[in-house]
Design a protein that fits this description.
The protein is 0% helix and 68% strand. By secondary structure, the protein is mostly beta strands. It has a four-stranded antiparallel beta sheet, with no helix packed on it.
């Protein structure tokens, strides 16, 4: 589970990512060209999301769980 930042790295350049809620609504996206990326997810509510990471050759789909600590 993530709290504030998620990081990912690839041996191919990452051309972008999209984050979707469980209903399929696009919440965040960014287009980048590098092999490593950090995403601030502190503005997302607790829950389950889908993240798509785009490289030049593939699209990777991963489940993303956000769990902020409740004081």
């Amino acid at each position: 589970p993530a709290k504030t930042i998620i990081s990912f790295k690839s041996n191919q350049n990452i051309s972008g990512f999209s984050i979707f809620d469980i209903y399929g609504k696009k919440i965040k996206e960014n287009y980048i060209i590098k092999s490593e990326e950090q995403i601030d997810v502190s503005d997302l509510s607790n829950g389950i999301y889908l993240i798509q990471i785009f490289t030049q050759k593939k699209i990777f789909n991963k489940k993303l769980i956000i769990t902020h600590e409740i004081p």
